[in-house]
Amino acid sequence: MKKLFIGFAVIALVMLAAGCKKGESAMDTPETHVAAGHKYLENRQYDAAIAAFERAIDLDHRCAGAYSGIGYVYLRQSEDSTGETRKTLLDDAMDMFEKAMGLDVDDIYGKIGKARVMIERGDARNARMLAKAAAQEDKENIEGALWWGIAAGCVGDWDEADYALKRANELDPTNPEVQDAWDRLAMARRLMQGVDDQNYRAIAFNYRIGRADAAALFARELDLSRLERRSVTSYGGPVFVGPGEPDTGAVAYYATDIAEHWALPEINLCIETGLMEAYPDGSFLPDAKLNRSEFAMLAAKVLSLTTGDPDLMTRGMTGDSIFKDVRADNFAYGAIVACTSRGILAGDPDGFFRPLDFITGTDAVNAVRTVETILAHY
User: Fold this and answer.
1) Residue of 109, 168, 161 whose CA lies nearest to 142
2) Which fold has domain 19-201?
3) CA-based, 20 to 30 A from 13: which of 102, 180, 189, 271?
4) Please, which residues have CB within 8 angstroms of residue 106's CB and are 6 or more apart in sequence?
5) Per residue in 158-217, pLDDT tens?
6) Residues linked to residue 291 through DSSP beta bridges, in sequence order
7) Are 176 and 191 in contact (CB under 8 A)?
8) pTM (two decimals)
9) Is residue 18 predicted with pLDDT exceeding 50?
10) Where are the TPR repeats (predicted)?
11) Which pLDDT value is given to residue 325?
């Protein structure tokens, strides 16, 4: 009897050391709750999903799949959020994915999730390496191949994106996310045909573009040299070079966070011409994503500055709105009307403009090229 008691004591100590708790029923296991959490997540039942994942952690605090599951909840919620809320959700998601990877170095979904957060943060280069590693570790995992392809597309590497997406398509030819990525890649290739600069051509593939991407588009696609330059504060750049001394090649930069950015010349030009501004603290936030109303403001401002029509961005801000989701007194309404009436951007057939949706790379490229066509007549 004493030996039996000692045996039970040893088992209890082992379970305690492993962080495991006995479930209340045969179905009350970490694996069951993780599976249930993902089902809830698919149906966008976020509270129920988190509750399921947390129950799995309660039963086994080293359950990597539960932590990555919570990370995916935060990641999904970030897709419907903006500003600081979105940033916080992405930070929380990253914490969960890193926790999962710390508990299980082979947690594929933790790696894929971390790669997705990195893409959202504008770090597609490192995301590509991480997603590629996940895809190569588990060649039957469609998510790994899919996000490897997407990350490669986000850095403008068409060949690698094509290879990875082909693998994903072979694993599941009916997957809608794979088909969407294929379509985006095909469209990006058409729009950026002949463009060798991977940073620039990647803009057309991205489903959310940043402020630096917009600056690059406007500066490269349009002739901004016709716009008046203004004197702006430089935060660094060229230094005096004496006679006979080698040129340092230093370039001025008009915001504190763009000195090493690939689009530095274009950002500088947009700031010089007044098309875009640095923030009061001197930052430009090159990777901050633009929504449709913000992009409309930029496109309309180019038209206003180039055509000499100062009222273009405010005209029509009286009376009733032509959109169900944008009031006529909204700060961007005039710009939105200016863009939609000229075919630069489009609203939905049912009367919505979706001003807070992020502008896609495809829409941005097409919009700027439409502006170029319009300005050719001036």
Assistant:
1) 168
2) 1.25.40
3) 102
4) 137
5) 999 999 999 999 999 999 999 999 999 999 999 999 999 999 999 999 999 999 999 999
6) 358
7) no
8) 0.84
9) no
10) 30-63
11) 96
Report percent pLDDT > 70 for the chain: 89
**Residue spans per domain, the chain:** 19-201, 205-375
Query: Are the CB atoms for 119 and 181 separated by under 8 Å?
Result: no
| Tokens representing residue 152 in the block | 């490669």
For 251: left if phi > 0, alpha if psi spans -120 to 50, otherwise beta; the answer is: beta
- Spatial separation of the C-alpha atoms in residues 246 and 240, rounded to whole Å: 11
Secondary structure of the chain as H, E, C letters = CHHHHHHHHHHHHHHHHHCECCCCCCCCCHHHHHHHHHHHHHCCCHHHHHHHHHHHHHHECCCHHHHHHHHHHHHHHHCCCCHHHHHHHHHHHHHHHHHHHHHCCCCHHHHHHHHHHHHHCCCHHHHHHHHHHHHHHCCCCHHHHHHHHHHHHHCCCHHHHHHHHHHHHHHCCCCHHHHHHHHHHHHHHHHCCCCCCHHHHHHHCCCCCEHHHHHHHHHHHCCHHHCCCCCCCCCCCCCCCCCCCCCCCCCCCCCCCCCCCCCHHHHHHHHHCCCCCCCCCCCCCCCCECEHHHHHHHHHHHHHHHHCCCCCCCCCCCCCCCCCCCCCCCCCHHHHHHHHCCCCCCCCCCCCCCCCCECCHHHHHHHHHHHHHHHCCC
Contact call for residues 364 and 203 (beta carbons, < 8 A): yes
CA distances from 285 to 186, 211, 240, 274, 290 (A): 29, 7, 29, 16, 11
Distance CA 216, CA 327 (A): 30
- The answer to whether residues 365 and 204 touch, using CB atoms and an 8 Å cutoff, is yes
Which two structure tokens, joined as six digits, stand for 104? 């299980």
Radius of gyration from C-alpha coordinates of the chain: 26
Length of the chain in residues, anyone? 378
